Amino acid sequence: MTETATHRILEVPGARIAYDVRGPLPTAGEPPLVLIGQPMDASGFGTLASHFPDRTVVTYDPRGLGRSTRSDGTTTQDPRQQAADLHALVAELGGGPVDLFGSSGGAVTALAWVTEHPGDVRTLVAHEPPLLGVLPDAEHARAASARVDAAYQAHGWGHGMAAFIALTSWQGEFPADFLTELPDPAAFGMPAEDDGGRDDPLLSGAAAAVTAYEPDVARLRATSTRVVLAAGIESRDIITWRTTHALADRLGTDVAVFPSNHGGFLGDEFGMPGQPEAFATRLREVLAEG
């Protein structure tokens, strides 16, 4: 099967959604494999997609990110709205069910999607969804996350990103005063000067609805979709490892442990490669277990 991606546009209310298809539609065997992120767009999935030459692989840019544009007058990244966009995308592909891998905020969108439209997805692998509300220390986690956004608004990208790295690398529960004293950006190789920008999709508050999303546990337990929660072994005890396990406890399921870290599927897309070959092998195993 060719690995060449065909670029397409889907018109939905308030947005033009850019997506890519690698392989034939309709498929003759296994259903399409859809890979989604948030705020990461399709550009982060090239390496992972290349490890599935036998599958039709679909990637997309969430509305307002990457190549996708929006005209709905907001920058908010709402998992339920993105779920509606993906529901329309699957209909455009010829209907479900598809197999689905969601990473980070994309895993949150994926959970919202299978809650509302379970017939669209056969198996969901939700990798490290950052759902702050499921943590036992949710109040402290939300406060720390708000301090990240405040650092960005007050001092710019370098300070905001340094605070974000401190947040996402902390092991265990957050103390009440976490990030009340901000780290030095230089300690993380970040610039201290303020470039004046305040529209970063990760730090501007646009993604606040993602981390604030409250999964409907009863509906997820009852869904016809096979839901697999997953986390990278190198993420042990950091925030997204803990959110994944906390949600698994609520659902009464186990967590599938994957190689590497939060971005373990990445190749050289952003200069921070994980272990994409081993990651893809594990994803293939988990999908086959269904």
Brief sketch in words of this structure:
Residues 71-80 have a biased composition (Polar residues). The protein has 290 residues and is α/β, with parallel strands linked by helices.
Characteristic terms for this protein:
2 domains, about 290 residues, alpha/beta, about 35% helix, Rossmann fold
Would you spell out the secondary-structure blueprint of this structure?
Blueprint: E1 5-12, E2 15-22, E3 33-36, H1 46-50, E4 57-60, E5 69-70, H2 79-93, E6 98-103, H3 105-116, E7 121-127, H4 138-155, H5 157-169, H6 208-211, H7 217-222, E8 226-232, H8 239-251, E9 255-258, H9 276-288
Parallel strand pairs: 3-4, 3-6, 6-7, 7-8, 8-9
Antiparallel strand pairs: 1-2, 2-4, 2-5
Report on the structure:
Keywords: Hydrolase. InterPro entries: AB_hydrolase_1, AB_hydrolase_fold. The protein is α/β, with parallel strands linked by helices and 290 residues long. It has helices at residues 46-50, 79-93, 105-116, 138-155, 157-169, 208-211, 217-222, 239-251, 276-288, and strands at residues 5-12, 15-22, 33-36, 57-60, 69-70, 98-103, 121-127, 226-232, 255-258. The chain folds into 2 domains: 5-131 and 213-288, Alpha/Beta hydrolase fold, catalytic domain (Rossmann fold); 138-188, no CATH class. It contains 9 helices and 9 strands. Strands 1, 2, 3, 4, 5, 6, 7, 8 and 9 form a 9-stranded mixed sheet that branches. Helix 1 (46-50) links the parallel strand 3 and strand 4 (57-60). It is globular.
